[in-house]
Amino acid sequence: MRLDDLDYYLPDDLIAQRPVEPRDSARLLVDRGSSAPQDAHVFDLPNFIQPGDALVVNHTRVFPARLHLVRRSGGAIEVLLLEDRGSMWTALIRGGGKLLAGEELYASDGTAVVRFQGRIDDVFEVELLEERWPLEHGEMPLPPYITERLEDGERYQTVYSRDARSSAAPTAGLHLTERLLDEIRSKGIQILEVELVVGLDTFKPIDVDDPLQHRMHTEYYRVPGATWEACRAVRDRGSSVIAVGTTATRALESAASTGELSGRTSLYITPSFEWQVVDKMMTNFHMPRTTLIMMIYSMIGERWRDLYGHAIGERYRMLSFGDAMLLDRHAR
To answer: Would 190 be classed as within a structural domain?
Structure first.
């Protein structure tokens, strides 16, 4: 396999810079297998799922993880906290030249916020000296392709989010509203929750010529026992499990692959992957040459190109604040 197999042309002017209002007015491209896809909106989602199905969401909440700090010398440093590992955090760090182990980084008022510890593979390890400082002064870690300021930080959170631990939002869930969730429940469709703490794997590009050789970092996931049993019952009666987003998908399939309902997952879903839980996936449109395109490729095969081509031709809004699609791995 070649990296070009995961590539497509993404016009810059289609990269959404702000979310639409209301949330569920985003467009929804519905996969219908070999038939032409259907153009709809997220508020139409109840029309495409059936009584007895289950909709599974990732309830993780985004931590204000982007910290603008300075060295003692005054040099500017940006720290993006990735994951709390107990006494330490993993992080990405930009600017300021080479840091020394034990070096402290400061807020503009002189408060020591972070102590640099060292490098671990592709990330750094830091100690957070002021635990509440990021909550009060940190910025939402929007992707670098979003260049406009987000006035309301809650628009980068799902309406059901809790436990602020992630360094990026599970973006497919940004489209769901309480009204829409209530309508889905009223049709006899269960809303179930999982957790996957979104970290480096969400935005790390594939940097090898053969994408099958890409190495995934681990992320924490948890599938409650009640969610797992409900999904099994749904599939046993021939109904569908619909995952909202790639992170909910990865949590469910990680549990199936490992036999463990919680832990750390390095699951990499490629075309040879044997799907066990998720029948349909609602997901945003993703950057080319990424593991997220690989997951879509695994789910629906080569027709992912037709769906993306249709979306670009119809000027769907792309990426984190963009529109969504509903994929069906059983569609023919």
So the answer is: yes
